[in-house]
Amino acid sequence: MDKSPRVTTWKTLAAGGALLALLAGAAPAPVAAQGFSLMSPEQEQKIGDEEHPKVLAEYGGAYDDPRISGYVAEVAGRIAHVSDTPNAKFRVTVLNSPVVNAFALPGGYVYFTRGLLALANNEAELAGVIGHEIGHVTARHTAGRYSRGVMAQLGVAALDLLFQNSMASQLAQAGGALYLQSYSRDQEYQADLIGIKLLTRAGYAPQAQAHFLASLGSYAALENRIAGKEGAERRVDFMASHPRTADRVERAIKEAGVGEGEPIYRRDIFLDHIDGMVYGDDPSQGFVRGRTFSHPGLRITFTVPEGFRLNNGTDAVTAQGPNGAGIQFDNETDRKALAAATSAADYLTRIWAAKAQLQNVQGITINGLDAATATTRINTDGGQADARLVAIRVSPEQIFRFTMISAPAQARQLAEPFRQTAMSFRRLTTQEAAALKPLRIKVVKAVAGDTAEKFAARMAMADFKLDWFRVLNAIGPNDVIKPDQRVKLVVAD
Question: pTM for the complete prediction?
Answer without folding.
Answer: 0.77
